[in-house]
Specification:
By secondary structure, this protein is an alpha/beta fold. The protein is built from 13 helices and 15 strands. Its main location: cytoplasm.
Length: 394
């Protein structure tokens, strides 16, 4: 009895400390907003990675004196730094685009609640809007139509995955739209095998899945015997189907977070081919946005070159000579023109910068077709590096 009482007191103390931590986190986050306001006035970059590194090393050393593991301290404060950077970027973007800031936004995405596109949409707008009006769609084409027609403000589209590669259907649709890319977000993809009722892997006979998760979990699925795969339009549709069936012989591939919205439970976790599995999503809208100069930006363009030898290389050399980093190159066939290709290029540069403007002018002279799909903030925040010596010494 005494042990139970002691445990309750310990838990009460932990709860009290957790509340204090939340209060301090909120206070710290509020201060980062003041940092963003100062940087807006002085036009200074959002990130100062040298200061971030010095801060982390100092915190690691102070944590050591308190008996805290260096990796534990690093993990916590890398997350805090990432949150600070993203909040500062969101604030600076509100200044650059005052007419686009609304308390309520409407977003079209693939599937229904629980899909990875649904999760990416909510994660992206968690810093930007108080309320999201959800519009689940059955295809990528439907998403684009919803935005183009003005029925919704934005469309969330998966563009590539670290495991299964580029999503070609989305690239092909982008050839024929007047929409602009206004944002991006990288969503962790943590595939699980989910069931609606308690079951065992040996009992599973049917797995419902969207094509992308199926491809990304092929190694796990190849090991299973006597299992039939049923393809669905989206992961959300697959989860809804499994929930409706309430059958211990059926399962679905999806995220544990999304599955919880359908009262599904993880029978097997981490079943993707790659442990580090992420999908990059792009956000499209009817009008382009301005990107604040303090924010790292990415610009996406499409070009069609001639058939002469080295035509593409000449265009890429323009970027190299201007000191512009190309971070993505994707080729897709041009519909109705056999053996001709369209090239999608992502560069890490703001469309406002003179170097990129000059590069686009030169590339235009060397191509049959060029189109700017959008300039938008880089959402992926690389973790602040800590020297291995600092981790070892700590």
């Amino acid at each position: 009895m005494n042990q139970a009482l002691d445990l309750n007191k310990i838990r009460e103390k932990i709860t009290e400390l957790d509340q204090q931590l939340l209060t301090l986190f909120a206070e710290r986050r509020a201060l980062t907003l003041n940092v963003a306001k100062s940087k807006a006035q002085q036009v200074r970059p959002v990130r100062d990675q040298q200061r971030e590194q010095e801060l982390l090393i100092s915190l690691i050393n102070k944590g050591k004196a308190l008996g805290l593991d260096a990796h534990y301290v690093t993990c916590i404060f890398q997350t805090i730094i990432e949150d600070s950077v993203l909040n500062q970027q969101a604030y600076l973007q509100t200044l650059a685009n005052p007419n686009m800031q609304e308390p309520t936004v409407s977003v079209a995405f693939l599937g229904a609640k629980g899909s990875y596109s649904y999760l990416a949409s909510h994660r992206y707008f968690s810093r930007r809007a108080e309320k999201i009006i959800e519009h689940g769609c059955q295809s990528f084409y439907d998403i684009m139509q919803q935005v183009e027609s003005g029925m919704v403000d934005y469309g969330m589209l998966p563009i590539e995955n670290t495991s299964s590669g580029s999503i070609n259907e989305v690239y092909d649709i982008l050839q024929h739209t007047n929409l602009s890319i206004v944002g991006e977000i990288t969503q962790p993809i943590e595939h699980c095998l989910l069931t609606a009722v308690n079951s065992q892997l040996s009992k599973i006979r049917t797995i419902y899945a969207h094509g992308q998760p199926f491809a990304q979990c092929s190694n796990f699925l190849d090991k299973q015997k006597n299992i039939r795969i049923e393809y669905c339009e989206s992961t959300a549709d697959a989860m809804a189907k499994v929930y409706q069936l309430q059958d211990d012989s059926v399962a679905v591939i999806g995220s544990e977070e999304g599955g919880s919205l359908y009262q599904l439970h993880a029978l097997e976790k981490s079943i993707a081919n790659q442990v580090e599995n992420h999908s990059r999503f792009i956000l499209v809208a009817r009008k382009p946005i301005d990107v604040a100069e303090q924010i790292p930006a990415k610009t996406t363009l499409i070009i069609a070159t001639g058939h002469k030898p080295g035509a593409l290389v000449e265009c890429l050399m323009v970027l190299k000579n201007k000191g512009i980093n190309m971070c993505k190159l994707e080729s897709r066939p041009i519909q109705g023109r056999p053996w001709e290709e369209m090239f999608y290029i992502d560069v890490e540069a703001n469309l406002k910068h003179l170097a990129l403007q000059e590069a686009i002018t030169e590339i235009t002279e060397q191509t049959h077709f060029i189109k700017i799909l959008g300039c938008y903030p880089i959402e992926h925040i690389s973790p602040t590096n800590v020297p291995s010596s600092a981790l070892a010494d700590a």
